[in-house]
Design a protein that fits this description.
The protein is of the alpha/beta class and 352 residues long. The chain has helices at 11-22, 36-43, 62-72, 86-98, 115-129, 172-182, 202-213, 263-274, 291-299, 316-323, 333-344, and strands spanning 2-7, 27-33, 50-53, 77-81, 102-105, 163-168, 191-195, 217-219, 231-233, 239-242, 248-251, 278-282, 303-307, 329-331.
Length: 352
């Protein structure tokens, strides 16, 4: 049985979330708090397995409550937000940086066309996050950016790297932030990314990554040419691929582990278009998306990297890639960034 605490300032929404979560026989809503302060008081008495957290609350908002909870009563926290206001989206991603493990939109009302899907996603996410017994976070020590990269293998160290492809799911946003913020301003190749996240959050994610890392990130557009030193995120409900002439190709293809966008689709496209001239990076997340295709990239000569278990919120995807023998390096985020820098150093123009 998954014990859940709901933190939400609206009585109507608290009761609605309670109704949805209690409809699953494996979930027990053991409490509801209308503020961050009440949530902290509740945690002094009882220990939930998961907390659902609103962002926009008076006095102590969801970001501040998440930060304090992760310092005092570490518990898996799922941000449940209804606001697309840029300030609230910013707080959502700051909360993931502080330790929240997932972010979802609030379920639509009964009778809405998307009610069933959004309610199901909330239930499934809460149950899955209950398995994260200890939310692990890595030190964001900027002095550690000179971390030694993983040892290069054979001919791969001689390849001319032209593109980096990364995939992430649960726990991914702060990892992407950590990696991108560690890349040099003149990083010489494009970075393509698939991040599994609730619909509507991507514009805020791209803005947040750009502001907090200094690495320009945008949502990919069909037919656009990708440029060095820029990040491109697959848009909602579309597959993202890449052509050998550096042009984005978006598609409504439903292949890719039943996900759209899928990491598998991106990695497969990169393997076909760039072969040994690419790097594939599979980060924290549930499931197996991207694992087989990371192995395909390796078979085509690409360099392949998986995030290590200690720094992953959930080691499902990278763990599966390791099990399949798809990875050449298993590294924490700071060493992933250092390795990407080392692999692409020869691409940078030498000063005269």
């Amino acid at each position: 049985m998954t014990k859940v605490l709901i933190v939400e300032d609206s009585l109507v929404v608290r009761e609605f979330l309670t109704y949805i979560l209690s409809s699953d026989p494996e979930i027990d809503v053991i409490g509801a708090a209308k503020s961050g302060e009440e949530a902290l008081e509740f945690l002094e008495r009882k220990k939930p397995d998961v907390i659902t957290m609103d962002i926009n609350m008076p006095k102590m908002d969801g970001f501040e409550a998440t930060r304090i909870i992760m310092e005092t009563h570490p518990t898996p926290i799922v941000i449940v937000s209804a606001s697309w206001d840029p300030k609230e989206v910013e707080k959502t991603f700051r909360a993931t940086e502080a330790g929240a493990v997932a972010a979802l939109e609030k379920p639509r009302g009964i009778g809405h066309a998307n009610y069933e899907n959004t309610a199901r996603e909330l239930v499934q996410t809460v149950k899955a996050m209950s398995e994260v017994k200890v939310v692990r976070r890595w030190k964001r020590n900027r002095e550690a950016r000179a971390a030694t990269p993983g040892k290069m293998e054979g001919k791969q160290k001689l390849a001319d790297i032209k593109l980096v492809a990364m995939g992430a799911s649960t726990g991914g946003p702060p990892v992407l932030q950590d990696i991108l913020s560690s890349l040099s301003k003149d990083f010489p190749v494009p970075v393509l990314m698939v991040q599994h996240i609730a619909a509507g959050f991507l514009p805020g994610l791209a803005d947040w990554l750009t502001r907090t890392t200094g690495f320009p990130v945008q949502i990919a557009v069909h037919g656009e040419d990708v440029l060095p030193g820029r990040g491109y995120i697959a848009p909602d409900d579309l597959q993202m691929g890449i052509k050998s002439y550096y042009r984005i190709a978006l598609d409504e293809d439903n292949s890719g582990n039943g996900l759209r966008p899928s990491i598998s689709y991106l990695f497969s496209s990169v393997a076909d278009a760039f072969g040994e001239n690419a790097v594939g990076v599979l980060l924290t997340g549930m499931g197996k998306d991207g694992a087989k295709e990371l192995k395909l990239m390796k078979e085509k000569g690409a360099i392949t990297i998986a995030q290590d278990e200690e720094s992953s919120v959930i080691h499902g995807m990278p763990g599966e890639a390791i099990r399949l023998g798809a990875t050449m390096h298993v590294l924490p985020p700071d060493r992933i960034a250092a390795t990407l820098e080392a692999l692409t150093a020869r691409n940078k123009p030498t000063s005269s």
